[in-house]
User: Fold these one by one.
Assistant:
Number 1:
Amino acid sequence: MNLLSKTRLLTALLILQATIGCTGESGGRDPQLIPEDRFTTDAVVTDYFTKQLDRMTIEMPPEQMSREAISVQTSTIERAKQQIWTLWKEANQARLATCGISEVTPIDKPVWTLPNGDKMKFAPFAKGTKPAGGYPMIIHLHGGGKYPDTPIPWGSEVNENEWFQSLRLSADYKDAPCLCFVPRMPDDRKGRWYHMPLTFVYRRAYQLGVLSGLVDPDRFYITGISEGGYGTVRVGPFMPDYFAAVGCLAAAAKPTDALRGLRNTPFRMEVGEDDTMYGRNVYVRLWQDRLNELATQNSGSYPHEVIIQKGRGHYINYYGMTPWLLTHKRNARPDHVTYVYHSIVPDEPDAMEAFSAGVYCLDLRALRPDSKDTRLSIDLVKKENTYTLTTEPLSGKVTGKIGLYINDVDYTNPITVLYNGKTVFRGKLFPNRGAMVDAVALFGDPRRIFSSKLAIDL
């Protein structure tokens, strides 16, 4: 037997070993694997990726991809991930060419179309020399708010002035090198930064910034002033897996269970001690108490700073925020994840409903909440090959499945999943192209190309 034949035999034996006792996303046991010469072609993968771009709901890839097994050798898994990421880049070429993200301030501000048809202007510009790993990217959300009587989407003079103020401040902050992304409120009649279509914008900015080669995947931040601050306190806990740190200035709403999601995401809030409007000077102290409590109960988690600026009202010193943000780097695959599955706009009946499609290594697309006010606490702890998943209903009822992406494990040994104290899976899994393609389409994140996946029934 020649060396090539021995290599192929070894690979086949490794794949067979990795499939014994497997219950994967398809739910089948010991699935019939697809030989390498019949793998889904690159053209089909690229076509699937192209069809998912700029969609709020990401479809699952063709089921057969989950049976396209890869050798359990680490080097082989990493090569397969790199191949999938290359196909993702190819699918994004047209999107990149027109995205408007660049190192220089454009004369004409780019305009993006949101999933609901709204138009959003923004200004992207770089400060300083690009580091070897890419710029840190900071989203700056301006103040202003909701002006329902404005006759056209960009008709509020207040929001227009606040946008230019945000442009001036972001250019003036002492935080170079960085790439600034400064959006303009897409519709002044709605006037909120945390509505569903805007969560799409932040994810898109991350994906395109990284694909452009300009942005460090682990140094993506969001901050905002006043109405922009209210955006960050909602958006940060809603999609904490993208941000290296989150900053809120001159805003503080009543804290909710959602802030549990900040376990791995540094958070900073600054409010004037005399900022009495909407109870900001009261709520900031509640945030301080709650975050202190969480940090005490979970040593090493919930890094935060809450600063109450003495003698100031709504207008405070903004200049300490972005330098603090840039001291933090994201942990894209933490061993302990806490998240509250909830609607980002439960108190606004006219806003589009938005539950998260996924967070960290969890796919939440197959969950079914019974109302807009549904809240489910999710906690996941990974220790080597064992995953411990715990859920707790906080409001309403959720049915369906949680998808659990598997990565950073020893595939030659069994993987165990415990759900609410019971073992729901124990067996060997195989790394496969389907999980990798699915994770890339859902997150668009080079740090989260997961190698296999399980579905857990609630």
Number 2:
Amino acid sequence: MPEPGTFAVDGRDGRVGRVMGRVGPYLQLRPPGGGAEWDCPPEAVRPAPPGLVLRARVTEINREGRLPS
């Protein structure tokens, strides 16, 4: 099971998200750069490969670097 703070792939639809924790029987995943968390059954979660992790981290860094207008 992926640790909170790591990236994982929701095997049901291929979305990548940061593992935020557990709520009941589900893992909570959040899209890179923010947004609404979604529930994913633990059996559908798989570790994100290095290329997807890199892409997700770049998305987060870009989002953090944006200044409000």
